[in-house]
Structure to design on (544 residues):
């Protein structure tokens, strides 16, 4: 019965809308939707009870340590402000992230939400994460360098719903900014991670071991077990592990400049490294321990790697076929330009 | 420190609104159609979920004992699992692929939640299971929001042809704007998204 009544409404609405078809979902749209899901998760995590405790303000204030005064000053001001208006500000933060997720998922608001997410990410990267610790030497790619939140901004730029005229993009991330710029951004990101992996604090014999053990606190038994196993393997091998990690990150950084088959190999390596980082270095973003504000950097690194995945070469077209080029097939975003 | 009560109140109000809208949909649809009711299960599930979730969020809105809700959501989960199985076997009327999956996950998540509240569920992997349910609900939410309202909506596609035929033959007009609004696909989708987000919210804050 309900279906009939709903059907009638649907018929009328469709007639009124000129029977417009649902726009398709291409690779870039799928990546945008994953990004939307992560924002949504972030928003919900921000509502957790721990975020309404003084710990949240202290966590923000802690990121100021070791940063230059010009960076640390605003962070301390932000931490004090959050401490004073904790419930209100944290709810605003959570709701903003929730709306960013819904806004990216809802096609008519996609552009506005992506633009807002860039601004929000940059603000949080500075005021909430102390630039990811890149200036104070206390960061490591295994624990999230150069800061998870900056990756949201990078993804928003690379997945922007636009296409450069006159060129067929070799991968989804190149559609809006072009292949040279997309490759340069990739090189800077993964190259910087390789650099951070080799900083003195991170190549100490017990550095990685201690980092991973530190992630096990408050986690469920199976996560603690995984962390302990990973830490045991790396115990005393901090230097070798750091060099191996830096080498892998360098290969990944250079990979997108290689021909497609080799680039795919580098991207698979990126996915493997991201999985390693997420499981052992980040303990699944410490979500299961409670008190995490996001799933950390690894899922975003994996999403980024998928955005650079070169599509399979299109099959030779029949002479009568006169469709758009491979990356242009079913672009839903055209509608929203 | 815990999540402030006024935030829980806001989510509870949204859930009561969803329950009210679902009840309205059922009443209006009953008044206009003679028989059928293939999508009544979804509207009923929204109604029950709205009431149950509001009770979880605000103890003052609790209507039934947790054990009763546990039974209700066990039955609901079994029903949608059966619908999904029929759909996958092609024994049901043709529907949008995965039509029942979100409702199944919502029912299972609430079953898990009430089982945890009654102590019937071992807490060994409680947080892991809660996170898995939350992630699934988030995925369905994103998928729902992405799709245009009114195109392959939650209500069975089987209704489309018959509805088209009925409409062509001169259906009962939905003259009242309120009635039209209640049955609009956007409102149906809104209810679906609100329920998924709220259940995911509860699961996350319970971790």
């Amino acid at each position: 019965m309900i279906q009939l009544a709903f059907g009638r409404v649907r018929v009328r609405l469709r007639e009124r809308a000129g029977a417009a078809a649902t726009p398709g979902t291409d690779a870039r749209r799928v990546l945008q939707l994953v990004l939307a899901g992560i924002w949504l998760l972030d928003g919900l995590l921000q509502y957790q009870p721990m975020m309404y405790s003084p710990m949240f303000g202290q966590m923000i204030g802690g990121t100021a340590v070791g940063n230059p005064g010009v960076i640390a000053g605003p962070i301390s001001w932000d931490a004090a402000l959050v401490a004073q208006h904790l419930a209100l500000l944290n709810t605003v933060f959570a709701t903003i992230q929730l709306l960013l997720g819904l806004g990216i998922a809802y096609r008519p608001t996609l552009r506005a939400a992506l633009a807002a997410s860039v601004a929000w990410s940059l603000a949080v990267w500075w005021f909430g994460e102390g630039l990811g610790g890149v200036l104070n030497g206390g960061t490591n790619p295994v624990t999230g360098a150069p800061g998870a939140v900056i990756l949201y901004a990078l993804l928003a730029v690379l997945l922007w719903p636009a296409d450069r005229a006159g060129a067929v993009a070799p991968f989804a991330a190149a559609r809006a900014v072009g292949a040279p710029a997309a490759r340069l951004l990739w090189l800077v990101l993964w190259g910087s991670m390789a650099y951070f992996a080799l900083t003195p604090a991170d190549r100490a014999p017990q550095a990685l071991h201690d980092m991973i053990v530190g992630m096990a606190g408050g986690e469920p038994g199976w996560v603690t077990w995984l962390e302990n196993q990973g830490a045991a393997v790396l115990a005393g091998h901090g230097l070798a592990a750091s060099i191996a990690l830096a080498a892998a990150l360098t290969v990944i950084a250079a990979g997108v400049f290689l021909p497609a088959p080799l680039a795919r190999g580098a991207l698979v390596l990126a996915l493997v490294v991201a999985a390693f980082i997420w499981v052992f270095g980040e303990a699944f973003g410490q979500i299961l321990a409670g008190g995490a504000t996001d799933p950390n950097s690894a899922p975003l690194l994996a999403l980024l790697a998928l955005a650079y995945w070169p599509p399979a070469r299109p099959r030779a077209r029949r002479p009568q076929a006169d469709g758009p080029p491979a990356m242009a097939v079913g672009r839903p975003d055209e509608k929203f330009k | 420190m815990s999540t402030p009560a006024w935030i829980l109140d806001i989510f509870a109000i949204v859930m009561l609104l969803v329950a009210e809208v679902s009840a309205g949909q059922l009443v209006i649809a009953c008044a206009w159609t003679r028989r059928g009711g293939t999508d009544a299960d979804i509207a009923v599930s929204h109604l029950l979920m709205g009431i149950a979730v509001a009770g979880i969020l605000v103890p003052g809105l609790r209507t039934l004992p947790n054990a009763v809700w546990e039974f209700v959501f066990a039955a609901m989960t079994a029903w949608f699992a059966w619908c999904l199985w029929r759909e996958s076997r092609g024994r049901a009327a043709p529907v949008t692929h995965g039509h029942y999956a979100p409702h199944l996950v919502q029912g299972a998540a609430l079953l898990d939640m009430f089982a945890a509240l009654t102590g019937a569920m071992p807490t060994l992997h409680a947080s892991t299971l809660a996170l898995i349910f939350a992630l699934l609900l988030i995925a369905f939410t994103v998928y729902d929001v992405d799709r245009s309202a009114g195109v392959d909506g939650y209500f069975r596609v089987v209704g489309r042809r018959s509805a088209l035929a009925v409409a062509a033959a001169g259906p009962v007009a939905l003259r009242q704007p309120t009635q039209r609004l209640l049955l609009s696909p956007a409102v149906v989708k809104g209810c679906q998204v609100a329920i998924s987000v709220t259940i995911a919210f509860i699961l996350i804050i319970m971790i």
